[in-house]
Design brief:
The complex is a heterodimer.
Chain A lengths: L15 H17 L6 H8 L3 H12 L3 H19 L3 H7 L5 H12 L3 H17 L7 H6 L4
Helix pairs in contact in A: 2-3, 4-7
Chain B lengths: L6 E6 L2 H11 L3 E7 L7 E6 L7 E6 L8 H12 L4 E6 L3 H10 L3 E9 L2 E7 L5 E7 L3
Parallel strand pairs in B: 1-4, 5-8
Antiparallel strand pairs in B: 2-3, 3-4, 6-7, 7-8
Classes of the chains: A mainly alpha, B alpha/beta.
């Protein structure tokens, strides 16, 4: 008598291995953005065709791996600038190799230079510290008994 | 005439843990992070999905003595932990990629992606126990 068919315990869907490779590539960029990343190597490990990898990555994340890496770096830069780190330190901390290219790229993406953004954020932080209730909606503050 | 929904509150068990979950796992952005008055360790903390920055989710701590009695706070905590509250539908471009990424980050799914009449949907829980639908809606 044939043994009963084992219950299917692993969830599967079409192209599951393709998805897992692409997600691993994305998570690799998320984790190692601060270092020089050779995107060709990621493509080699994930696929035999770099072109195919880029196309698939873009179809999921709306950006090429390179564009995605740049966006991770600049978003991290915003966080560090907000924390008060100096612009030159931020530039290298997020993986850029040239201060001028970092500043130019930042300005192009966000319409403000890193230095101006940093000053703006420090000003907001100082205001929050000084007058926090200006930043908390009245309904919440009122219910909490602060007004 | 009411025009928009801009803020909602989600009860969380621990704001620091919720911050980590919504920012580092779900990829939301911090909109406001203001220490409460008087400083009691809690803050006015709102976050938003990356493509929807004007829709703020207030991660509200269940704080005994602030809004609730001890008994109410305990009841509310229990209900949140039990997964009583469904908090909404989050949409994504590609549900399988999002599902794999969130799973890799340790997010607990109670239902894997499944085809429904409106698209493909999965269910997951946040770090407190609140549950969300994650959906890739059909276009058109």
């Amino acid at each position: 008598m044939a043994s009963p068919r084992p219950a299917m315990t692993t969830y599967a869907y079409p192209k599951i291995f393709l998805y897992r490779r692409l997600v691993q590539a994305k998570l690799f960029i998320d984790a190692h953005y601060a270092r020089p990343i050779d995107l060709d190597n990621i493509a080699d490990e994930a696929y035999s065709s770099k072109f195919h990898f880029i196309r698939q990555f873009k179809s999921i994340y709306r950006r090429t791996p390179h564009q995605y890496l740049i966006s991770v770096r600049t978003e991290k830069a915003k966080i560090l600038l907000k924390d008060g780190m100096a612009v030159s330190e931020v530039c290298y901390a997020v993986g850029f190799e040239s201060l001028s290219s970092f500043s130019g790229l930042f300005k192009r993406l966000y319409g403000i230079t890193p230095l101006a953004y940093s000053k703006q954020q420090q000003h907001v932080k100082a205001q929050i510290k000084e007058t926090p209730l200006r930043f908390i909606p009245g309904c919440f503050a009122h219910k909490s008994g602060w007004l | 005439m009411i025009t928009k929904l801009t803020h909602v509150s989600i009860y969380v068990l621990d704001q620091n843990s919720a911050y980590d979950f919504y920012i580092n796992k779900l990829g939301f952005k911090v909109v406001m992070d203001v220490p409460l008055v008087p400083a009691n360790g809690h803050r006015w903390l709102t976050v938003a999905p990356p493509d929807h920055p004007d829709f703020e989710i207030n991660l509200t701590p269940i704080t005994e003595g602030m809004w609730y009695s001890k008994e109410t706070a305990e009841t509310l905590r229990d209900l949140v932990k039990k997964g009583t509250f469904g908090c909404g539908v989050l949409t994504c471009d590609d549900i399988y990629a999002t599902y794999e990424e969130l799973k890799a980050k340790g997010v607990e799914f109670t239902k894997p992606p499944k085809k429904e009449f409106y698209g493909v949907e999965a269910l997951f829980k946040d770090d407190s126990g609140n549950w969300f639908s994650l959906a890739q809606l059909e276009k058109g």
